[in-house]
Amino acid sequence: MKSLDDYLKLMKTDDVVKATQEARTKNALLLNDQGIAAIAILFSDVLAEVIKSPEILLSEKEIIDASTKQPRS
């Protein structure tokens, strides 16, 4: 089994820099994806709360007015 010293002899600065840049790019993409997913979850939670409790955004009078203007089928 090779030791770390064996690998260090084979490594070149350009290889390390390139690997580091690739890792940073992959990491940035993953963080962006996670951020978008987190925003989507937050938005869906807020939307669910507003649907469940519309008084969060509207006064009781506005809710009653809106429900009386809806056509009944």
How would you describe this protein?
By secondary structure, the protein is mainly alpha-helical. The chain has one domain (10-69). The chain is built from three helices and no strands. It is rod-shaped, with a radius of gyration of 28 Å.
Find the structural class using helix and strand composition.
mainly alpha
Q: How far do the termini sit from each other?
A: 78 Å
Global outline: rod-shaped
Strand content: under 5%
Report mean pLDDT, rounded to a whole number: 84
**Radius of gyration, whole Å:** 28 Å
Number of DSSP strands? 0
Unreliable segments of 5+ consecutive residues: none
Q: What level of helicity do the residues show?
A: over 70%
What characteristics describe this protein?
mainly alpha, 73 residues, single chain, 3 helices, 78% helix
What is the gist of this entry?
The protein has 73 residues and is mostly helical. 78% of the residues lie in helices and 0% in strands.
List the helices and strands and how they pair.
Blueprint: H1 4-10, H2 13-52, H3 60-69
